[in-house]
């Protein structure tokens, strides 16, 4: 399950709320706080938390129990029998508490659910009895012979627990989707959407359940109803999350989802936020990292409309976030189909992107520059791109990108900076086959910067991919201007085979004299 990275003390404080003393649990288990006015008490419990809160509580409890199963296996491996038993008792209590909590807010669980709950409780009780018997045995040989049986029992309990959680989540997702499909009330639909989006953030497995249960169909149904226009952005954000899994993309293809996205993107009456979220879905389903997105036939049919709308969104973006989503979609499309690069050239996308980079309010992060330079790198295979780069002062921008550095030290940002450096060097290497571009790069002193990146590991954050790209760009420029390099640079970075220069640079120790 997906868990947000938080301070360890804060994590402990949150988990502590769900940890209960075992003896108290055994005494209070399944007993009401008050004999009188039970209906009133139930009403207070059910209205205190939303469905989203209840599901989050259930997922946290499930995470704690899963963690306990792992710890029991570890203690068992070390023959810590007393600890194994005490932890088994604790798991037993946690499981019963989780089931009681769930039944408190569902009230009408199915017969199948009740059977699974009973089976799990019985298995937990058997496991507890088994481990209790173990602590009464002193013979180490007998205990060792029982270890495999305990491991098998633990595996069975964990399996039943996983099946119950799967069943509960499927049931709750079905309820949420039923609300979305049947309700004509925007408030109820928004609440169900919020809960559904929250579940998508818990990992790919939950996204698969949502897709399998018809989540993509239900979400696109909202996007096709004018009465829910105010919910389009939220719906599309949820769709983008569900489409991170193969099942989501297949469902999108079946319901003509690409056509719906194209309609939203090309309709200027929709808010910028809505069109930006539609761009995010496009970016997700065209991601080059997902192999199952390469066969979207309906996307190719609507590609021209989508690309045109995305370029317009980049041009008119009022914030860095909107530009990032639109440019990310364009960047992915340039990988998705080579025809897209020719379309971008005809739409003056190069000029628009280069102009956007001069606005620090719009292209304000390494992530945005990563998308821009990806598009430039993929378009640079076209001969016509060279003149566009010269006219838009693109060589200067590529040089600036070679100096890209992370300001926060955050690992994701550092990785983005490496990609910017690498792709800007790749773009320079490709475009420098044109003498005019090569001449501009030499005049702007790109060669010294490329040499610095090759020779100084810290300048490229020890990235091998940046090194290879810089060596390739340097060799291309050296052909055009051999006088721009010192003899030592030429002998070490240009003359040898690329692999030899690479090995030389990776073994280089930086001098701090």
Number of helices: 27
Rg, Cα atoms, Å: 30 Å
Unreliable runs, pLDDT <50, ≥5 residues?
A: 1-5, 21-49
CATH homology superfamily name of the domain at 49-169: Nucleotidyltransferases  domain 2
Structural account:
It contains 27 helices and no strands. With 513 residues, the chain is mostly helical. The chain has a domain of 121 residues: Four Helix Bundle (Hemerythrin (Met), subunit A), CATH 1.20.120.330. Helix 21 packs across helix 22. The longest helix is centred in the N-terminal third of the chain and has 43 residues. The protein is flat.
In short:
With 513 residues, the protein is mainly α. Helices cover 74% and strands 0% of the residues. Helix 4 runs parallel beside helix 8, helix 9 packs parallel to helix 12 and helix 19 runs parallel beside helix 22.
